[in-house]
Design a protein that fits this description.
Layout: H1 3-21, E1 24-26, E2 40-45, E3 50-54, E4 58-62, E5 69-77, E6 86-92, E7 103-106, E8 114-123, E9 128-130, E10 135-138, E11 144-148, E12 151-153, E13 162-163, E14 170-178, E15 184-185, E16 192-195, E17 202-205, E18 211-212, E19 217-224, E20 230-238, E21 248-256, E22 259-262, E23 268-276, E24 282-289, E25 294-301, E26 307-313, E27 318-325, E28 331-338, E29 347-354, E30 360-368, E31 374-382, E32 388-395, E33 400-407, E34 419-422, E35 428-436, E36 442-449, E37 463-469, E38 482-485, E39 490-499, E40 503-511, E41 517-524, E42 536-539, E43 541-543, E44 549-551, E45 553-560, E46 566-572, E47 576-581, E48 587-589, H2 594-597, E49 602-609, E50 615-621, E51 633-638
Parallel strand pairs: 2-9, 13-21
Antiparallel strand pairs: 1-6, 3-4, 4-7, 5-6, 5-8, 8-10, 11-12, 11-14, 14-19, 15-18, 16-20, 17-19, 20-21, 22-51, 23-24, 24-25, 25-26, 27-28, 28-29, 29-30, 31-32, 32-33, 33-34, 35-36, 36-37, 37-38, 39-40, 40-41, 41-42, 43-44, 45-46, 46-47, 47-48, 49-50, 50-51
Length: 650
């Protein structure tokens, strides 16, 4: 192709592509001709320029088109002085029709002010037209404010998430206030609507007044009539009404406290754990056994407490140890089976992965055998990159050793991450908990006992250990090879967690020489320095029949609120005690219903929190009906900030 043809071809393409890709541009995204001194073609100018106010909060300028215009440039000023105008945008004219007026919207306006506009055209000849007449526009806007209990609710902002608890039918009223300088007209039908109401629990009572004058307000209500137990939330829409470019919406949440029981045909049922996914759905893993068989199961519920699906695995040789729910709502279960590799192998480790709908990913069926030893997977967790860390212990008959397996989200093991922790000769060591800091360093906490290879937890020389590893598996032995022992008779299970404000938090149960148990909380920064002034101890002694001292404490764990407050849960044989520990080490009561604190029929084991602040308590029943020798799984939920309740924890 000749050079002339290439140039002509490029020009033809440019002529056809410009109208498609360059329509209307705002100031700042391109170079505008802002020079007001440029001469225009005398007598040629834009006419019939007018403006109108959108209640969405913008001024639209429109004008009669010129047949020989290529583009229009819009100028704006806060005064009528001709020298104060500056270009704010331009509009390309793709085609000409005398009846189709070009429009340009200016969104950078404030209510109650007067703005001045004028327009000039760039002609196809390459010259400019004269300026149009100057158009003055006074903005008078309504200002839309929505409140509940005098607290403003923002559009689509989770910071203003409205959390309301209900026990029975309840009406919740909201006020729409016009704080602007024009009438607020709500013209849609209906004005207020909801989405996400799965069972018809929510009814909208729309405003009686649809035209709100300056400084006045109207009211609408949402009536909640629970059709089932559990948590529900809907999105409430205040329809466009030309008030905004899109609907105003906020989230309304409700909960009816529920007490769920899982019972498999009068078997002995036990709980492996409960986790809350990013979809706010609780996942429960447990097992059921009788004299003849045993199986394990996964159950997933929605936020209302309704069961979504269940998987039951009838393999009496599989023992489930723990599980996790990752940030994509996948479920990874880890357990052990005797003879998984051969007839002579002992307890071997396996991992299985399921998506949020319960479909198993067969590629994720992992199994490990550590030299025909007894292998026990005990802890599993993901880091911020969604890598799975499985931590457990193995024993070769002489000493315990902790193993760590790192597997990425696609199921591939990090072969370079080769880390193990050796216990002492003839002693025992067991990991209880792991956590990660903001840099994905791994912290492992557990119990070790140098005296016996059979039981970590019953010895005057037992103690807790904490170890730290970087993301490649290199241990920090200078700052974080910690042992906590000697102060108490027995150091029992412990848990470790991390928060950017609180640092590393170690929580566990200890026992003195009179079998009294208490919970101890220790805090460290990421460099291993203990904050000794912010420790915490909680004792709980109970008198059994005959005056024998017997503690009800069985374990402890911590979670964090959205405000980074530390919530300490003390598990008991019969109820639970929950305390809030502030950053300065002070403690505060944490609202817990009496039915949770003093439920003597349940041994609590786990605490979880969903993204709306609902607290889930899970455990097993310890008072089977007469004539039955079994246990059932119990799950209860409550919202801790129900100000309508006077039943505060002591």
């Amino acid at each position: 192709m000749s050079l002339i043809k290439k140039i002509l071809t490029k020009r033809i393409l440019l002529i056809f592509l410009l109208p498609v890709f360059f329509q209307c541009e705002k100031y700042g995204s391109f170079d505008l001709i802002s020079d007001l001194s440029l001469d225009g073609v005398r007598g040629v100018k834009v006419v019939d320029i007018e403006s109108y106010l959108n209640l969405s909060g913008s001024v639209t300028i429109k004008w009669r088109p010129l047949s020989y215009a290529l583009e229009y440039i819009v100028y704006k000023s806060d005064t009528s002085d001709d020298l104060s105008f500056s270009a704010i945008g331009k509009l390309y004219q793709n085609s000409y029709s005398p009846d189709v007026y070009p429009e340009f919207s200016d969104e950078e306006i404030e209510s109650g002010k007067t703005y001045f506009y004028k327009i000039r055209a760039l002609l196809k000849s390459g010259k400019f037209s004269d300026f149009s007449k100057t158009l003055a526009h006074e903005t008078k806007l309504p200002q839309f404010t929505l409140t509940y209990n005098d607290q403003e609710i923002k559009n689509e902002s989770v910071n203003y998430l409205t959390r309301i608890n209900f026990g029975e039918e309840t009406a919740v009223s909201f006020k729409i206030l016009n704080r602007g300088v024009a009438e607020l007209i709500l013209s849609s039908n209906p004005v207020i609507d909801t989405t996400g109401d799965v069972d018809g629990s929510f009814t909208i009572i729309n405003p009686v007044i649809n035209v709100i004058k300056e400084g006045e307000e109207t009211e609408f209500s949402v009536i909640y009539s629970p059709k089932s137990d559990g948590e529900k939330f809907v999105t409430v829409f205040i329809k466009n009404n030309d008030l905004f470019k899109k609907d105003f919406k906020f989230y309304l949440c409700s909960t009816s406290y529920y007490d769920k029981t899982i019972d498999y045909n009068e078997n002995s049922d036990d709980l492996i754990g409960i986790k809350i996914g990013e979809d706010n759905s609780p996942v429960v893993v447990g097992f059921s056994k009788s004299d003849n068989y045993s199986n394990w199961f996964i159950k997933k519920y929605d936020a209302s407490g309704d069961e979504l699906w269940e998987k039951v695995f009838d393999n009496p040789y599989e023992v489930v140890e723990t599980f996790l729910v990752d940030k994509y709502n996948n479920i990874v279960v880890v357990g052990r089976t005797e003879g998984l590799f051969s007839a002579v192998s002992k307890n071997d480790v396996w991992l299985r992965k399921f998506n949020g709908a319960g479909v198993e990913n067969r590629f994720w069926y992992k199994k490990y055998d550590f030299n025909n030893n007894d292998d026990y997977p005990l802890v599993i967790k993901t880091d911020s990159a969604n890598n799975v860390y499985a931590v457990g212990r193995t024993n070769d008959g002489k000493r315990d050793k902790i193993f760590i397996k790192k597997i990425n989200s696609k199921g591939y093991e990090d072969k370079e991450y080769q880390t193990s922790i050796l216990g002492v000769d003839n002693g025992s060591i067991s990991p209880n908990s792991i956590t990660f800091d903001d840099e994905n360093n791994l912290y492992i906490a557990g119990v070790e006992n140098p005296d016996t290879a059979t039981d970590c937890y019953n010895s005057a020389n037992s103690g807790w250990f904490v170890k730290k590893f970087d993301p490649t598996g290199v241990e920090n032995t200078s700052d974080w090879d910690k042992t906590i022992s000697g102060e108490f008779q027995n150091y029992r299970s412990c848990a470790i967690s991390y928060n950017s404000l609180m640092g590393i938090v170690l929580t566990g149960v200890v026992e003195d020489d009179e079998s009294n148990k208490k919970v101890v909380v220790k805090r460290y920064n990421t460099n291993g320095l203990e904050n000794i002034e912010i420790g915490f101890e909680f004792g709980d002694n109970g008198l059994a029949a005959g005056g024998e001292i017997k503690s009800t404490i069985t374990g402890a764990d911590t979670i964090f609120t959205d405000k980074s407050e530390l919530i300490l849960a003390v598990f008991k044989k019969g109820g639970i005690t929950i305390k809030k520990i502030n950053n300065d080490g002070s403690t505060a009561d944490f609202y817990t219903p009496v039915s949770f604190r003093e439920d003597l029929s349940v041994e609590t084991k786990f605490i979880e929190k969903d993204r709306f602040g609902i607290i889930y308590i899970a455990g097993i029943s310890i008072d089977s009906p007469a004539g039955r020798d079994d246990s059932d799984i119990r799950i209860k939920s409550f919202y801790p900030e129900d100000k309508s309740k006077t039943d505060l924890a002591p």
